[in-house]
Amino acid sequence: MQDSIIVAVLATGIVAGTPLLFASLGELLSERAGVMNLGVEGMMLIGAVTGFAVDVYTQNIWAGILAAMLAGGLMALIHAFLSITLKANQVVSGLALTIFGTGLSAYLGKPLIGVPAPVTFKVVAIPGLSEIPWLGTILFSHDVLVYISYGLVALIWFVLYRTKTGLILRSVGENPAAADAAGINVFRVRYLAVVLGGMLSGAAGAYLSLAYAPSWLENMTAGRGWIALALVIFAMWNPLRALAGAYVFGSIDALGFHMQTLGVVIPSFFLKMLPYLFTFIILIVLTRETKNRRVATPEALGVSYSREDR
Amino acid sequence: MQVNIMKNWQIEKRGSVSKLMQFVVPLLSLLLGLIFAGIFFMLTGKNPVTVYTLLFQGAFGSTYGLSETVVKAIPLILAALAVSLAFRMQLWNIGAEGQFYMGAFGATWIALSFPQWPAYLLLPAMFVTGFLFGGIWGLIPAIPRAYFKVNETISTLLMNYIAILWVDYLVFGPWKDPHGYNFPNTAPFSPNAILPAFGRTRIHWGLIIGLVIAVIFYIILKYTKWGYEIRVCGESPKAAAYAGMNFVRNILLVMFISGGIAGIAGMTEVSAITQRLQQGVSPGYGFTAIIVAWLARLNPWAIIAVSFLLGGLLVGGFSIQTSGFPAATVSMLQGAILFFVLGGEILGQYRLTRKGKE
C-alpha cells in the first residue's frame, strides 16, 4: 500500500471514529455508574435530527450542538427514570429508547430531508502541528469537534482515575450498597452519569449530521450506536482504550471507502459487515481474556439498586 | 419495605399481583403510550385524534384492514414466541431480526434451487431449511455465551446487521432477478414454493404454524421437565447447576430453537407474502417481537393477542403514511408504549401510599 493511502485511511478513520468516540465515552460514564443504556442508537438519532434542525433554524452551529446534547440528555432521563427510579429492566428500557428515538427522529426529520445544512463544521488545520509529516494530516487537520474529543478523553480519564468524583462514580458502579453506606447518594450519581452519557450520545449524533455527512437522513446512524456499545466492552471501560478502539473501527470504515481506489474489488456489503464481524470477534477474545484478569466490567452493571435490599 | 421517591409518598410492595391489575396495567400502558406520542403530534401541529382515527380505521376499520392486520401479526407471533423462549432463560436474544433474514435466505435458496419439486416436498424442505438457518444464526452467538459468558445482548444484535447485509448482497448481486427492472429482489418463486392462503385474503398457513408452536410452547413450559429446567436456569443459574442441570446444553438448545422459530417467520414471509427474497423483507419484525414478548409477559396466549394489536399498529402506520407520515412513526408509538409498559410494571407490583398513614 502506498504511504499516501495509509495516511488518508487513518485520517478518514479519525473522522469516522469521532462519533463512535463521543457515544462510547457517554456510555462508558453511564456504565461506570452501573447503568447499561442500550438506547445509544436512539439518542444519537435524536441528537442528529435536533442538531441539524436547530442549525437550519438558527444558522448557528454551536446552538445546534448544544440542542443536540440537551435532546440526548432528555432521552437519557427517560431511561434513568425507568431503570433507576422504577427499577425497570435496563435491557428492555434501553431498547425502548432506541425504538422510540428511531421513530421520533424520522417523524421530526421528515421535512428536513434534502435540506442543505447552512453552517457546518469545517476543517481547521492547527498551525504548526498540522505540518508534521504524516501525523499532521492524520491528527491535526480536522474540524474543531475532533480536537474537543481529544480533550474530552483526557478529561474523562483524569476525572475517573485521579479525582474524588471519579472514585464516587466508580464505587457506585462497583458496589452501590457500600457507596450508599458511605453516604453517597447512589440514585443522584446514577442519574447524573446516565444523563451526561445521553448528552454525549446526542453530540455524537450531531457530529454525524453537522460535520461527517452534513445533512439529515432517516436512520443515518446506521448502527453506529450499537458499535459504540460494543466499543465500551472493547475498551474495558477505559477512556484511553475507547479512543484507540474508536479509531480502529473508524479506520475499518475508511478502508472500505479507499479500497476501490486501490483497485480491490470487494462488494461494499462485505466491507460494511467488517465492523460488526470485528466487534463480535473482539467481544469473544476480550471476554475470555478479562476472565483471567480482575479488571473490566463494573460489578453492579445492569443491576438496579434498592436500598431495602442492602 | 419502602422506597423514597417524593417527600410524602412512598412505594410499598403489594403482597400479590391481582388478576385485574394484570389485565388493566397493559391496557393503560397502551393508552398512555398513545397519549405520550400524541403530545409529539400536537407539538408539530398535527391533530392526534385525526392521526389515531386514521390509524385505527386503517388497521381495524374494514375487512381488508383486519385481514392485513392478521397478515402482519403472523411474523410477529412467530418471532415473539422465538424471543420469549430465550427470555425465559434470561438469554437476551435481540437477534430475531437477523435470524428472520437467515431463515428467509435459507428458504429462498431451496425455492430457487428446486422450483420443479412438488409443493408437498418443496414447502417442507423450505420450512426445515428456514428453521435450520435461523437456528444456526441463533447458535453462533450462543456458543461464546455458553462457554465464555460473552454478552449475548450485543452479539445477537451485531449478527442482525451481518444477516441483513448478506441478504442485501444477494438481492443486489448474484441472486438479482435479471428481468426485475433493476429492483433489489430475486426472481419470483415457482407456484410450488408458495405457502397457501385462506380464501381471497393474504392470511396464510403461517398463522396455523404460529398457533401450533404457541400450544407446543405452552405444554413444554408448563408440563415438561425441560420447561422446568429452562425456568430454573433463567431464575438462578447457580441453583440449576446445583440441581445437576446442564446449563451449557440448555443455552445452546434454547438459542438454536429460538433462532429457528424466528427463521420460520422468515420462511413463511418470503413463501407466502413477498413470494421472493427482497431487500428489507422484514420491516423490523424481529425488533417489534421483543416488544410483543415483553407486553405479553412471555405468555404464549398473550403473545397472540398482542401480536394482533401491534400488527394493527403496523397496518395503521402504513395507512397514515399516505398522509405524509414517515413509516417509522410506528416505531415512535411502539417505543412510547413500551415506556409505559415498563413504568406500569411497578404499578402492578407496588402501590403508592401516603407516608405515616398506617
From TrEMBL, chain A:
* Gene Ontology CC, one term: plasma membrane
Matching InterPro entries, A to Z? ABC_transp_permease
Note whether Transmembrane helix occurs among the keywords: yes
Membrane topology reported for the UniProt record: Multi-pass membrane protein
Question: Any idea which UniProt keywords this protein has?
Answer: Cell membrane, Membrane, Transmembrane, Transmembrane helix
Alphabetical list of Pfam families matching this protein:
BPD_transp_2
The residue ranges crossing the membrane are 6-23, 35-54, 60-84, 91-109, 144-161, 191-213, 225-250, 262-286
Q: Where in the cell is it found?
A: Cell membrane
Q: Is Transmembrane among the key words of this record?
A: yes
Record's superkingdom?
A: Bacteria
Q: Name one GO molecular function term.
A: transmembrane transporter activity
Q: What is this protein called?
A: Nucleoside ABC transporter membrane protein
What species is given as this protein's source? Hydrogenispora ethanolica
UniProtKB/TrEMBL annotation, chain B:
Gene Ontology molecular functions: transmembrane transporter activity
Where mainly found?
membrane
Query: What are its GO cellular component terms?
Result: plasma membrane
Which Pfam families has this protein been placed in? BPD_transp_2
UniProt keyword annotation of Cell inner membrane present: no
Q: Where are the transmembrane segments?
A: 20-43, 63-87, 99-117, 123-142, 154-172, 203-221, 247-268, 280-296, 301-320, 326-347
Q: Which InterPro entries match?
A: ABC_transp_permease
What is the protein's membrane topology class?
Multi-pass membrane protein
Q: Where in the cell is it found?
A: Cell membrane
Instruction: Say which domain of life the source belongs to.
Output: Bacteria
In terms of PANTHER family, this protein maps to: ABC TRANSPORTER, PERMEASE PROTEIN, GUANOSINE ABC TRANSPORTER PERMEASE PROTEIN NUPP
Could you identify this protein by its name? Nucleoside ABC transporter membrane protein
> What is the source species?
Hydrogenispora ethanolica
